[in-house]
């Protein structure tokens, strides 16, 4: 799914009106119907009052239209910002709403409002068209809303005050939303960690913008959805054998951390590669052989750490770093291996990244096409600090393009930044996956897909989606609180099955 800028969304609106409708109000009405249906899906009791806060533009017009529809079933109150410059469609929806005998309460920013308590609040003040920081006087209204203790706050398109495509300043004036119903395309700001306090969750609504125009509008930012993943999946050959599905080498572990490479190894096999060899220190040999008989094991000559990384062409993909530790011998082994310029596709994770971050020029060691899977702290060690998520993405984009590598920033809506300048945000996963070993599983999934012949970019996109989907299935069976990394592995097959059934 494409992610568009505010300017592009306005142009798509214009093209859709030109091709499909006789005027802009018809598009607004269609969007409002979708918003109305989405709100109804929240199963709000008819006894709960609903309050609409509407602005003077088309986002306010959407709110007025939805209020008109909801007034048929719910007790609705509408507060509309006083203005001398209402948009034409906003005015028309004011007239239609009044015709339903629903009163509109006009307010100014300095007013004291008579707000209902324990109601559902619908934020339709600004939407994604806002291009300025809200004046501090808006805090007067927002504080009154907070005091009224809403049951939930739903925002139409965007929370009021949240800028799309721009970082928020400190102590920003913004009305936080429990759920955002965003129109046609995810907004970049909804996907960034720094904005989580303003938009706790969101849902994308298809409002029927012209599909041809969407296809023809260029972007380099995408939101990964199941239809795209389905297209990436390869169909196996009926005559395939274990060699056909590739051989993964997992290099990791030190004394006390052998479980990490075992998780990676299990995930690689569960994702479908034919063979996995797990290279661990001598102390881990019996642990691997006992816990996972399907894997082969290579024991390092050192007892408690990795001192040699095998130089061989027998493997189709290599994952390095899980539980690796930072012993001096291990550091030397990793850097020597990378200096040799291996041509086998690589996944570098955890301590492999930490070792690299301690060098003067970490990215000079990394072969082109490698996949890096840092969490935010590991990323900071590699590229230095950032002041906001936009700067973070730009710094990573420059590195990925310069060194021709793929960098996957792990977290909610994990971000894949590619050397071709494309950026992908993942749509699967849940907070229960923030648990030890989850990243080790992800490395195994991606390495498995590399071994099966997927390109590094496609392996990363498919891998992060499968990883999140497996975690979603596991959480749905029990609860996110109880999720552990092994649960993710156990449901990789169910994730494949769900994709098969699309």
Describe the structure in your own words.
Strand 12, helix 10 and strand 13 form a beta-alpha-beta unit. The protein has helices at residues 6-20, 24-40, 58-70, 88-99, 138-147, 211-216, 226-232, 259-271, 285-291, 328-339, 351-357, 376-383, 389-403, 438-451, 456-477, 485-490, 492-500, and strands at residues 50-54, 76-81, 104-107, 120-124, 152-156, 179-183, 202-205, 221-224, 247-251, 275-280, 296-299, 317-320, 346-348, 371-372, 406-409, 415-417, 423-426. The chain has two domains: 6-219, 3-Layer(aba) Sandwich (Rossmann fold); 229-500, Ribokinase (UDP-N-acetylmuramoyl-L-alanine:D-glutamate ligase, 3-Layer(aba) Sandwich). Strands 8-17-16-15-14-13-12-9-10-11 form a ten-stranded mixed beta sheet. It has 502 residues and is α/β, with parallel strands linked by helices. The radius of gyration is 26 Å and the shape is elongated.
TL;DR?
With 502 residues, this protein is of the alpha/beta class. It is 38% helix and 15% strand. It folds into two domains: 214 residues, Rossmann fold (3-Layer(aba) Sandwich), CATH 3.40.50; 272 residues, Ribokinase (UDP-N-acetylmuramoyl-L-alanine:D-glutamate ligase), CATH 3.40.1190.20.
Topology, please?
Elements: H1 6-20, H2 24-40, E1 50-54, H3 58-70, E2 76-81, H4 88-99, E3 104-107, E4 120-124, H5 138-147, E5 152-156, E6 179-183, E7 202-205, H6 211-216, E8 221-224, H7 226-232, E9 247-251, H8 259-271, E10 275-280, H9 285-291, E11 296-299, E12 317-320, H10 328-339, E13 346-348, H11 351-357, E14 371-372, H12 376-383, H13 389-403, E15 406-409, E16 415-417, E17 423-426, H14 438-451, H15 456-477, H16 485-490, H17 492-500
Parallel strand pairs: 1-2, 1-4, 2-3, 4-5, 5-6, 6-7, 8-17, 9-10, 9-12, 10-11, 12-13, 13-14, 14-15
Antiparallel strand pairs: 15-16, 16-17
